[in-house]
Amino acid sequence: MPPAAAPLPCVRLLATGGTIAGAHTTGRGYRAAALSIEALVAAVPQLATLARINVEQVAKLGSQDMTEAVWRKLAARVQAAVDDPALTGVVITHGTDTMEETAYFLNLVVRSDKPVVLVGAMRPATAMSADGPMNLFNAIAVATATAARGRGVLVVANDEIHFAREVAKTNTTQLGTFASGQRGLAGLVNSGRPHFYAPPVRRHTAASEFSSASAPSGTGVPPVVGTGLTRRKPALFPRLPRVDLIFAHAGMDRALIDAAVTAGARGLVIAGVGDGNLGAPALAACAAAAKKGVAIVRASRTGGGVVERNIEIDDDRLGFIAADELNPQKARVLLMLGLTRTRDPRTLQDMFFTY
Ligand code: GLU
To answer: What is the reported pLDDT for 118?
Structure first.
């Protein structure tokens, strides 16, 4: 008798919507999140050669409607999946507009070495030459790869594998929209065959102080038994404080900064000009906000490079935080999480040099 084939790995596929589940309406228009996850899986029968897949529709939205409430729900579902010893990895379908923010959030709060992979598409599922099916196939392949373990949350699209910390959407419509800036790709994936490069450079997932195991006391809940397997019900992730993101420009005044403080922002990220700079009126407003205890992070609107401390702005004197390499939208994610632990600018700055 021939030896029995090894069982295929098991992957949990969590769906949130996006263009990968989009369908055309009229003319060039389409609606994101129109199709169910079952329909997307049924369209790629080749997935059955890679893994046993169980699906869950966590949300059904275009990712421009992604919220912190959905992030917390998604984080809990991902944590439950990675805590299940029967599962090899997790794939999340997601719109590309805010995928980098969700990926970075999960990269900081999920406690596991198992692969967690976000995947999207630039063309709707009903488009000619839709990119979703191959992206999904590649994402499932990456989620089952032993070499993907311990690399933090990954993004797969257009035959590329990106680290959550590095990836950014850089083009409105082109298939190759995702780029990973100075640090570069995590790897490539060719028709389900992943090739990994160097590991990630900063702390993430299991080593993150924001992961569920290190959630502030009182948020954890006891282990439960489910589907025949003992698994830990995930900790409830803390509610995130309000952090606003303001885009700097020539001739900027202080109105938006003051408005954000009045609206109750506990932190502000400034997408500053150049090296995270901003003109005198806006700078004065930020200095006043910092004095009141609002955390001020200087990021850059340039899309590349490092924002360093104390170059043209005296961060030490003003109590500001430099975003280091994070783009403004990811700086906002880290600041929200950081503010669940501290309001001290020096401790927050250390976080920006750590994650
Ligand atoms: N707005 C859509 C979304 O983010 C389009 C982008 C996409 O999914 O490719 O869900």
So the answer is: 99
